[in-house]
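pls ignore typos typing on phone
guanosine-5'-triphosphate + seq
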Amino acid sequence: MPPKSGHLRAKNVGYDDDDGYSDDDYYEEEQSGDGMTDEDREQLRINTAKVKESLDPSIGATDAEIQESLWHYYFDVGKTVTYLKNKLAPAQPKTEQPKKQKAVSRFDQAAAGVEQSTPGKQSSSAARILESTCTAPSMGSALSTLSVMSFKAPQQTDFFWDTPWGNVPRHRLGQISVEPRFPRGGLLGGSTKLAKLAAARKKKQEEARSMEGDATGTDTAVALLDRLSLKNKERTTTSDTRGQDAERKSFTKKYPRKRSPSPPPAALETEEIPLPEPTQPAISFPNLRANPSMFASTLCGKDEQGAQEQAVGSSTFPIPYAAFHSFEDANPFAGPSPDDIVRKAQARRNKPKAAQSKKTTGEKLIEPMTKLTVDETPRVKSKNLNVVQEFEKSGMKRMANFVVIGHVDHGKSTLMGRLLYDLKVIDQRSIDKLRKEAETIGKSSFALAWVMDQTSEERSRGVTVDIATNYFETEQTRFTILDAPGHKDFIPNMIAGASQADFAVLVIDASTNSFESGLKGQTKEHALLVRSMGVQRLVVAVNKMDTVSWLQDRFDEISQQMSTFLVSASFSAKTITFIPCAGLTGENVTRKVEDPNATWYTGPTLVAALDSSEPAAKRNIEKPLRLTIGDVFRGGITNPISISGRIDAGSLQIGDTILAMPAAETASIKGLEVENEPVDWAVAGQIPTLHLADIDPVHLRLGDIACDPKAPITLVKSFTCKILAFEHVLPMSVDVFRGRLQAEGKVTRLVATLNKTSGEVVKNKPRIVKPAEVARVVVELERELPLEKGTRVVLREGGNTVAAGLLEG
Ligand SMILES: Nc1nc2c(ncn2[C@@H]2O[C@H](COP(=O)(O)OP(=O)(O)OP(=O)(O)O)[C@@H](O)[C@H]2O)c(=O)[nH]1
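k done
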């Protein structure tokens, strides 16, 4: 039987300094009940066969003897054979033995020297190993068997007398303790490189410590080793300490410590552990006790002694203002504030003539602001183009912006993605990439929608959140798509999109029940909103026709119901077009439908219907500039502040100065882009990007108006408007929306209900305005807004659209 012991542990002991650290030091090998691993058993079996082969059969060694010897010689076949030959055939000369031995290490030599020079001390080194090894209860019995079997007190004649591991000095035995079965705590699992290094360092420190302790009791050779290792240790310690000090210094420098409040002196005095009587120190040490922090002193009062000690120390920090006893009495607001001084200085500069000339009640409030905006000299050189002439000369295609509206998930983004893909605005590679990405998150059906929905939130939720813009052109027209969110939570964003649109594409899901649920939801609300915001032309895309097998009945049913509703919502039947299509498959989007069930349809494709739209109403190019800011962003390193938005009226060019309202701050246009292309000018109806200079971004907010400084938009705090009620309206709090602009307000007065078509007064001072009624109401705002006659607003309350209105003054 092979011995069962912690022998395995001994195999892992690295005696030489240059022995590398091994994982085995921290991971005990998998052992079965006999203390051996499967690997050991296999090794033992192979080596037993080898030993048997090498031994003269006359020697007659049993398997048990061979295995025992192999075990003690760490499976060394040569040594085992020699040992068995010596043991079982004593006649053989012993002198051959050293030749076969492995070269001994420096430590082994030293240890052997110890044993030779101090015979009395050679008492059972192996037993000592065992003593220290047999600490783990699990190994106890196996080891005790081993100690009885193999580690009898060695005789000079004993074969083991010169085995190096049998002569391990006691101070080294600390290493041979039984390791815990699992990685030690504190090293984060022990398998990382860091953990290994930490463990190796710890081991070295322990080694050095044990050396110090035993140094006196060792002989010269061990003392020599001690000195060697101590030197090393000193070296390491010094360099370590130096290193640590340097590290600490640099760390302290890098991350100066916060002074945490020290406990007050009283707390220190009440320490429970009695301190030993202080002996008179030969050298007086500096008082290293930390002084209470200023914070603690302030809170708990000053300890006089502490204060004195503190006075001696150099690291004192006065409380700000502590020296000024009368600081409570002083009035810090007596003089003008630094802001006042700056504002006063700025106010001395010239006032903008335009801003001055048009004074309203509200302007009194923003007077200081307008005084700040003076510099009308553009910093960027203007080409002084006559933009109206340039526009006429350019022979530009007609332009149209359309907003895509409809209930959530009815397929708006997919339809637009398909349209852009089929018109080759989006290339195959991009689509493949989107498909792949969509597949990875299990939303492959949304790949086309992702052409429009580009934020990670939209993609992960599968819902459009904000207006997405894209462009395409047909033979006659350059189109700007404004894809609106369908979810009711994002109606304000839909309003912002609709406020920039010339016409709308209303997408309706033809699938069973989807159309019906949309009617109760945003299909109707969106249609009403765009109408009340001035949109007259509507293309109704009856989408997902593939899900109803292109059934004509379904198409007709939807068309009829929607026509009735839309006409009741003041759309003209002539300006509504119904197109059956399937965005997902692309049928009847840019190409004719080929489904055999769809032969009944002979009308235009969706793109053809868009292209044949009436040109937008005449653009107000010659009117003063009005651009509703739809986005404020950083347009790159050279363009730290950029805005984009639709030009509602007028034109602009590079070098122009614009006035941002309500901030009443001017800025100069240093760069212009339309549809991502640099241009020199832009006109009403376009949605350009303006790269600005000479303005602080804080003065630009979504919904603000960029206008002509010579004809600025007025700021109003209350207005009268003609509304179409969606819900009951009475004097109530409302949120007022104008494009991206949103402000709190109140319907303060119901002036009259009006006739829908003629606009004549039906009833003065009604107590309530019912849904679908038209009325004149007065709205008061919490703050002044840039609004003027003809502006369209939406009134909402508690997340519902209450009414849409047109400003009358
Ligand atoms: N079968 C079929 N499914 C479609 C069609 N069009 C869109 N879908 C699916 O309808 C789901 C919603 O499509 P979206 O394009 O995200 O809908 P949406 O109206 O833009 O949604 P929101 O913008 O969040 O309101 C997706 O799973 C599409 O694959 C279609 O023509 N046929």
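The pocket of guanosine-5'-triphosphate is lined by residues 408-414, 445-446, 449, 463-464, 485-487, 543-544, 546-547, 582-584 (CB under 6 Å). The chain has 25 helices and 24 strands. more later
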